[in-house]
Amino acid sequence: MSTSPSEAKIRVCFVCLGNICRSPTAEGVFRKLVEDAKLAHRFEIDSAGTGNWHVGELSDPRTRKAAEARGIALTHRARQLGADDFDRFDHIVVMDASNWAHVARLAPTEAARAKISMMRAHEDKADPVAEVPDPYFGDESHFDEVLDICESACAGLLRKLHSPR
Ligand code: 4NP
User: Fold this and answer.
1) Which amino acid residue places its CA nearest to atom 13 of ligand 1?
2) At 87, phi and psi to the nearest 5?
3) What's the pLDDT tens digit per position in 129-162?
4) What is the mean pLDDT of the chain?
5) Options 3.30.470.30, 3.30.1300.10, 3.10.105.10, 3.40.50.2300; CATH of 8-160
6) 129 CA to middle of ligand 1, Å?
7) Which of 49, 73, 75, 94 is the S-S candidate for 99 at Cβ 3.0 to 4.6 Å?
8) DSSP H helical segments within the chain, as ranges?
9) Ligand 1 probe mutation, 136, 144, 146, 150, most atoms within 8 A of CB
């Protein structure tokens, strides 16, 4: 059965601290998986940070370089998560426990809070408390590690959110 264009989109927002390293990487990786699966019409994908220091900036040059090496161009401009994002999105996927605490504090209702999940809980070998480590003060290998984790977690997330019929 083909999917009706009028079917409601699945809206996913990835969240980290600065919105210049981990969450734009997750956004780019997930978008590529969705596009490769010819499912772009079924999803709305974005990212945001809990902090506001980098609002309006492109992703960190090291983030963009690591993503570019895997064929992913990141053009996202950093923005800060707001309470209204709980209306705009069905799934808020956070990178670490600190993000979780910030985002949970912003959630206006229990239903909103139930939209939050940890990124690594979507990996096959799901560990509900495992984190995507912050690469900001690390070297190139830390940015590659973020991409590895995002690829594995995003593949799991896509399988959960869209099962072929
Ligand atoms: P992100 O990484 O949360 O993955 O975007 C960081 C970016 C900036 C800072 C910390 C983490 N910062 O301290 O400015």
Assistant:
1) 18
2) -85, -35
3) 899 999 999 999 999 999 999 999 999 999 999 9
4) 95
5) 3.40.50.2300
6) 20
7) 94
8) 22-36, 61-68, 85-88, 97-106, 110-113, 140-161
9) 136
**Residue 34 near residue 9 (C-beta atoms within 8 A):** no
On the question of pLDDT at 3 being above 60, the answer is no
CA of 82 to the centre of ligand 1 (A): 17
Domain ranges of the chain: 8-160
Structure tokens at 2: 């083909």
- Mean pLDDT calculated for residue range 85-97: 98
pTM above 0.70, yes or no: yes
**Is 35 a residue whose pLDDT tops 80?**
yes
